[in-house]
Design goal:
This protein is of the alpha/beta class. 42% of the residues lie in helices and 16% in strands. It contains 36 helices and 29 strands. 53% of the residues are buried.
């Protein structure tokens, strides 16, 4: 008899094997981080229910089992090895194992050299991720599979982060998308994360075995893997117990059950963990803290007895919906705080019904709504005003501290901070890629440890040794928390440590403050997360100052909206639905594909009882207006049309394919002219889309490389599939020198990605792939080098021909760039004439690609502003000193553009940054510094294969609103 235990991140699995290696007993249980007590309980049960177990060979495996096994003297078997042993025993001939656990995911390649790929920095695409998504959809986990089976559409959802996927899903729910479609989309996201993130260029083929809880219990998830991998994977009957079975098969020693159970029960960690000072030394200190913060109050009124006009404010947030009713003097007459289970429409209907029932004769003068669900609520219930979140929160903050210098709002999954100068928002900070400093971060840990969030927060107030967890993402924090538990940290220490971590993440990851002093001393904190006294105390200690937390901290967005409605009220009577209209209120949802342009947006059409409609999910106004968007003031549209004009021209030397990726978005005119003049037919790959990306997905060797680089694989594969037998994609260390920087390099990814393609794409060996190292920056030397290169692959090309082709290529490139700058100048002149703001939408040449920019240019154009790119204005600036080494051509343009707009009131810069761009960690800080030195607001938008345009829209509206506030403040002066 053999016994194996698999101690995982969220569960304990145990099997008892008989002499024929058949399972005679098994159990699968969650441990809720109470690992040792669960192990002891299971060992006692195994001994009591299995005769002969005293003589069994016992071993432990699993990610959380090593410490216990070592301390208690039980054999430990590494889980990958245990999995391999079990697979070879029970399913001989297995080629690949895909295993999804609670917080880990791995792919084991067993043939062609044993290799293991495991998630390191992200738990996206694991069981915990699916668990969180089920909670967000407000459905039991076991119903996810059933829901997904009813799906009709697939949405693009991030699974890179269990917290941030919510920002893709929440707008879909707010727009009325069907939960069944979202459930299937979540499974598709998990598959994409696993294949792209773990396979890393190695193809998954042969006999594929699925293991782990999610793949065992969810047939739709297995089906999605089968579809993407074009296989028919096997999920064995006892897939949950493969690691435990492998451990049992490897066990070599018996144990003394009484001794081991006692040792496990009394297992304590080392006690060696880093910790911070206590948040409160004693009860008296906490009482003084509570007294001080209870003074920032709002006058309360009685709704039923109130006579006069009222103002309604609603904040339809990412995780909660807040509504307030305010009197003419700012008094709070009524409020409601509701968890947002996805669709905020029924919650607002319920709020209004309660309001009208409590005060039938209520006189609503004006109403305003803010938050993620702003547009659908405004349209559904005819609110008078929609207001961007930042302005709503600033308006509320001024009510409590008129001379406030800094406002920080930490919500469920977003952080909003802004500096105030001369009574206007001077700078904005919003979290982009991580929400480890947000409320849902604490909520996730509280749930994982089996506590309600309120109870969990209180535990940390008097912790003796708050664990120093740093400011890290949820996954890393998970491992840190588990390690701290193993080392003897109490739940109280962990609760306090997480509260400190939230504050540090907000200050040093989102705001990126070099010191607390630069934020000012007059600070208002708000948002539901600051209702947690431990977080508030940690913030004050880190800032070394006392701040104001209004007693309505969690309602500030709604209260600010009500104040805004009051300030704008002129008609005296709100358009919000009356009690009679509310009785006949109906809400129907239909999901359709737009098809009116190349975006092919999946639209959610919300229909209401009186024939009104609200369309969500659109990147432009065309589904609403039925007219093509105005492209005249958008340089991005112009650039794309210019590139499309380079058509193939028949030549006598055959066809050459060029991938429309990375630097080719600027160099296509050069290479098209060069090869066309040499007698080649130049065929560029099509503009990117999701299907093109999927073609090359399995060959991408790194999940952390930027999305534009990932797309190169799809472009190359598309060219190969189209029958192109020669592809030209050179390595270019240098770009053309524009005289703006200390040097003129391409970034390493742009310069050398052809090497990655050659090493990782199997089909590249079927064709002629030209990836020579060339230097187009050296005009005199280029023809000679190019001629040598060409004669390696083609016969009879003379230096004379190459010189003529090179001359034509440089002229075409110069002409192309001149056209762009001329058009940009025309756009600026037209905007000046019409009195429009101008956004310099800055990035790289490849950000013109609609699949990369996600239609953000069209979204910005929808605000009635003109759009130019950094290369339009950078040529108007002479080289100037920077605080960083200015050695990349594209970045030199960015710095020059930031310098140029600093002196113009009608221009603002928005920087597009692709996730995974290491060099932009430098450029973003420098661009911000240049802009802020001139009193400009820096706005950054991070994009990758998935971008939630709802969050982007809030960011852009915040910028435009802040700019307007600055102007109004200047006019008052």
């Amino acid at each position: 008899m053999r016994i194996g235990l698999d101690i995982g991140s969220t569960t304990v699995k145990c099997v008892v094997l008989d002499d024929k290696n058949e399972i005679k007993y098994s159990t699968y249980e969650r441990h809720y981080s109470q690992i040792t007590s669960k192990i002891a309980e299971i060992l006692e049960r195994v001994r009591n229910e299995n005769s002969g177990s005293e003589n069994a060979l016992v071993a432990i495996s699993g990610s959380a089992g090593m410490g216990v096994a070592d301390k208690c003297g039980i054999d430990f078997v590494q889980e990958v090895y245990a999995t391999r042993v079990a697979a070879n025993t029970f399913i001989p001939g297995t080629d690949v194992i895909i295993e999804l656990g609670g917080e880990d995911a791995k792919i084991l390649f067993l043939t062609g050299g044993m290799e293991v790929r495991m998630n390191g920095s992200c738990a996206g695409g694991t069981g915990a991720f699916i668990d969180q998504m089920a909670t967000l959809l407000n459905v039991p986990l076991e119903k996810m599979d059933e829901l997904a089976a009813q799906s009709e559409k697939i949405y693009t959802i991030a699974s890179r982060c269990g917290v941030f996927a919510k920002t893709d899903i929440q707008p879909l729910l707010n727009q009325g998308a069907r939960k069944s479609d979202i459930a299937e989309s979540i499974f598709a996201a998990v598959v994409n994360q696993t294949v792209a993130g773990l396979a890393q260029g190695r193809e998954i083929e042969g006999k594929v075995v699925y293991l782990g809880g999610p793949l065992t219990f969810m047939s739709r998830l297995r089906r999605r893997f089968d579809m993407v991998l074009n296989t028919n994977g096997i999920c064995p009957e006892n897939s949950l117990f493969f690691v435990a079975s492998g451990a049992a098969l490897c066990a070599e020693n018996t144990i003394d059950f009484d001794k081991i159970i006692d040792a496990v029960k009394h297992y304590n960690g080392s006690g060696n963990f880093a910790f911070n000072k206590p948040l409160f030394e004693n009860q008296a200190e906490y009482d003084e803290f509570s007294r001080r913060h209870s003074s920032a109050t709002v006058e309360q009124g009685d709704l039923k007895s109130y006579k006069g006009k009222v103002f309604v404010g609603t904040d339809a947030g990412s995780t909660t919906v807040k509504s307030v009713v305010m009197g003419e003097n700012g008094e709070l007459l009524y409020s409601k705080y509701q968890p947002n289970s996805g669709n905020p429409v029924p919650l607002i209907k319920e709020f209004l019904e309660e309001l009208y029932a409590a005060a039938p004769d209520i006189d609503i003068a004006a109403s305003a709504v803010t938050g993620y669900g702003e547009e659908i609520i405004k349209n559904a219930f005819c609110y008078d005003y929609g207001i961007v979140e930042t302005i709503a929160h600033f308006t509320a903050a001024k009510r409590f501290m008129p001379d406030v210098e800094f406002v920080i709002d930490i919500g469920g999954q977003d952080i909003k901070c802004f500096k105030i100068h001369n009574g206007a928002i001077d700078n904005l900070f919003l979290n982009e890629a991580c929400s480890s400093g947000c409320g849902s971060f604490l909520q996730t840990f509280a749930n994982a440890l089996g506590y309600k969030i309120d109870d969990f927060a209180k535990l940390g107030l008097f912790a003796k040794q708050p664990v120093d967890l740093g400011s890290r993402c949820t996954v890393f924090m998970n491992s840190s928390v588990k390690q701290a538990q193993k080392d003897g940290a109490t739940i109280e220490d962990i609760s306090a440590g997480l509260s400190v971590s939230v504050v540090k993440n907000a200050l040093y990851k989102v705001i990126r403050a070099s010191s607390p002093d630069e934020l000012g001393r007059k600070i208002v904190v708000q948002g539901g997360t600051f209702l947690n006294d431990a977080v508030l105390r940690a913030f004050e200690k880190e800032m070394n100052t006392q701040v104001v937390r209004p007693t309505i901290s969690g309602l500030m967005g709604a209260y600010g909206a009500a104040l805004y409605a009051m300030s704008k009220d002129k008609a005296g009577k709100s358009t919000i639905l009356s009690p009679e209209q509310l009785q006949g209120f109906k809400h129907e949802i239909q999901v359709v594909s737009c098809g009116l342009c190349s975006n092919n947006c999946r639209l959610t059409v919300n229909k209401f009882a009186d024939g009104r409609k609200f369309i969500g999910g659109n990147r432009c106004e065309r589904p609403i207006t039925k007219r093509s968007p105005d492209k005249s003031l958008n340089i991005y549209d112009y650039k794309l049309e210019l590139l499309k004009s380079y058509k193939p021209i028949k030549g006598n030397r055959g066809k050459i394919g060029i991938p429309m990726a990375l630097n080719m978005y600027e160099l296509l005119p050069f290479w098209h002219s060069f090869f066309t003049n040499l007698g080649f037919e130049v065929s560029a790959s099509p503009v990117s889309d999701r299907k093109l990306y999927a073609k090359g997905q399995q060959t991408i060797p790194s999940d952390t490389v930027c999305y534009p680089a990932k797309l190169v694989h799809g472009h190359i594969q598309t060219l190969i599939d189209s029958g192109c037998d020669t592809i030209f994609y050179p390595c270019l260390s240098y770009n053309l020198d524009e005289g703006l920087g200390d040097n003129h390099y391409n970034c390493p990814v742009v310069a050398y990605y052809p090497e990655v393609i050659a090493a990782n794409m199997k089909d590249i060996k079927k064709i002629t792939f030209i990836k020579e190292y060339l230097g187009i920056h050296r005009k005199k030397d280029f023809p000679k080098k190019a001629c040598e290169m060409l004669n390696k692959y083609f016969d009879g090309i003379t230096i004379k021909e190459v010189k003529a082709a090179a001359k034509a290529a440089y002229e075409e490139y110069d002409s192309h760039m001149k056209k762009i700058r001329t058009k940009g100048e025309q756009i600026i002149a037209q905007a000046e004439k019409e009195g429009k703001d101008i956004i310099v939408l800055s990035g790289r040449p490849y950000h013109v690609d609609p699949e990369i920019n996600k239609g953000i240019d069209k979204l910005i154009a929808g605000f009635g502003v003109a759009i130019v790119s950094e290369d339009v204005v950078s040529c108007n600036v002479d080289k100037f000193p920077t605080t960083v080494l200015n050695q990349w051509t594209y970045h030199s343009r960015l710095y020059a553009a930031a310098k140029y707009i600093a002196g113009r009131d009608d221009m603002n810069l928005v920087q597009l940054v692709s996730f995974g761009c290491g060099v932009d960690a430098i450029t973003t800080d420098e661009v911000r510094a240049i802009l802020e030195s001139e009193g400009k607001i820096y706005t950054q938008i991070k994009i990758d294969e998935i971008t939630n345009l709802g969050a982007v829209k809030i960011r852009l509206r915040s910028l435009l609103a802040a700019v307007e506030e600055q102007r109004e403040a200047k006019n008052k002066i």
